[in-house]
Amino acid sequence: MSLAPRHSRLPTAVWFVALAFTGLELAVAARYGFHRDELYFIVAGRRPALGYVDQPPLAPLLTRITAVLGTNPIAVRTLPAVAGGLLVAGAAKLAGLFGGGRFAQILAAVATACAPVILGAAHLAGTTIFDLLAWTGVLLAVTTAIQTGRPRYWLLAGVTAGIGLEFKDLVLLLAASLVAGLLLTRRGAVLRTKWPWLAAGLAVFLWIPNLVWQVLNGWPLLTMAAILHSEHSSANDHVTVLPAQLLYVGILAAPVVVAGFIWLWRQREFRYLAVAALLLLAYVVIDIPGRPYYDDGLLPALFAGGAIAIERHFSASRRLSRGGWIAAPVVGALIALPITLPVLPQSILHDIPGLHKLNYDLRETVGWPEFTTAVANFAASMKRAGTPPTAIFTSNYGEASALLVFGSQDDLPPVISAHNNYWLWGPQGASDQVVLTIGVGDELDSYFGACRAITQLHAPDGVVNDEDGVVVGLCTAPREPWTQIWPSIRNFS
After folding, report:
1. How far apart are CA 195 and CA 201, in angstroms?
2. Residue 33: partners with Cβ closer than 8 Å, 6 or more residues away
3. Cα(175)–Cα(171) distance, rounded to whole angstroms?
4. Where are the domains of the chain?
């Protein structure tokens, strides 16, 4: 039996929810400041390539496009905010394709818009929100192809997956889980037609530019995958992965997800999606628990299924009960908002216990202009003393990128790093005679005759983040040139 959608057009209320989501994101876009990844993407966007060590090319490319509006958080974060709004509408569309009515579509949109993981992802100009949107696009196309008997929608799924792969390679997880879900629920006949394979061919074709880059650069994708697995599979990660899932979904919206899984499992037509969700959760829990959001691309489908279950359980005459289901995700989002988006005064962030663990990214958007000013002032003081630094070597791409983005008017020496794609860009002719080091520790001690710590830098307003307390040092008397030591100091993480 085909569960054709009751409505081909989304209710007006869904678009209001999507617009409200985007409006909220834009309203707080300028608060605090850039995230280290955004600064890195801005620099990478100025050096366009078919790929980078730690991501495909499209996210950095978008920062180059939005740079026409200025290098500021609002300009850079506009497209992620819009992508989040489209994701909200996509969840409602899934509810319609699953057979849901007006209430189900609205509830799916509200629950998606209020999920902390979606709110947080759409705040930053990174890869996550575009990856999540690609997953939803693939799910929409595949569901349409299977449920409405229009197999050409598989081609749209392939195009969407191919574009998604140029943002983040996690679309491969979705493809694998969908195929496994179809096979395990005895719906493999779908895969014996030409359309899924044409879709796969289209996706690979669109992925070819990045694949070529990977081949030419020794497959850093595989190296990074191994490193991420090692860094994010500790015992503590295994303990916290399931509670983190609840926090990311929204505690008050979690019942909708549970109802959605049960509903999808009970529907023979959609059981493959429930199986896919289980497989993805198992992968995250077992292989990379430190990245609990890796399976959240299926959240819109789970919210859609749960919304239908609730719609059918509570008849239209029980409006109060329906209203409670709509209100629950909103209340949950409001409770979590202070640790999800930059709505609180920056000056009180240090008073919130455990904030860095609950939302690592929030505090990492604080202090980059001040960091740059402090380094620039220190370099200027060395210049006035007659020993100007000939290069600045940073421990990570965030520090290097901040100096390049905010320090363009400060007459800084060449800024280099061995972290991720900065290592690939190399020392770029920088002198190694007097090297100002940022957060490096003893990593360069064996390559220079003298290295010493000079001072520490601190984030403003007492905020504790990765750059608070970073040590500024000085290395002189190089034993070998950069070109000789560069292969030995690579830092992928």
Report:
1. 10
2. 73, 365, 366, 367, 368, 369
3. 6
4. 12-347, 368-489
Cα separation, 318 vs 352, in Å, equals 40
**Model confidence pLDDT, tens digit, residues 275-334:** 999 999 999 999 999 999 999 999 999 999 999 999 998 765 566 588 899 999 999 999
Residues 6+ apart with CB under 8 A from 323: none
Q: 332 φ, ψ to 5°?
A: -60, -40
38 to each of 74, 162, 246, 256, 466, how far by Cα in Å? 12, 23, 27, 33, 16
Structure tokens at 425: 């860009």
Q: Say which residues have a Cβ less than 8 Å from residue 318's Cβ, sequence separation at least 6.
A: none
DSSP one-letter code for 449: E
Q: Check: pTM over 0.90? Answer yes or no.
A: yes
Element (H, E) at 446: none
Residues 6 or more apart whose Cβ sits within 8 Å of residue 36: 364, 368, 396, 397, 398, 399, 401, 402, 466
Alpha helix ranges (H) inside 217-234? 220-231
For 9, list phi and psi in degrees, rounded to 5: -110, 145
What torsion do the CA atoms of 354, 357, 362, 364 make, to the nearest 10 degrees? 110
